[in-house]
Prior knowledge:
With 128 residues, this protein is mainly α. Helices cover 73% and strands 0% of the residues.
Amino acid sequence: MHYDQLTRLVQLRGRFASPEDADRATRTTLCVLAERVPDTVATALVERLPPDLAAHLHRDPEPSAEPLVADDFVAQLAERASLDALRAARVARTVFRVVDLESGGSLAGRAKGVLPEDVRDLVARAGR
């Protein structure tokens, strides 16, 4: 799938007003995720996503990512995307759902073993 198609799905499922809003939400969600997951998870997703989208999962090498907690993830996403927390949680679930579908279940599958339970729940709810 091409990046334009993926962001169009995010736009439709997330009820974004424009493709640009969906693109910004997708990029921001993946950037925050990439900062908080092990390199192996980011690498697995990079291999399965369109190059334009996968580029947002690359990060500068760090000694270790900060532990990911769902509330912190949503708060950081809300701040970066200028959203309230409720909308940020919905955006995250929408992006996770579309990315999980397009990565052949890689996001949810990889998340199961490496993400804290509350974040796994956020990702899992996205698949429903």
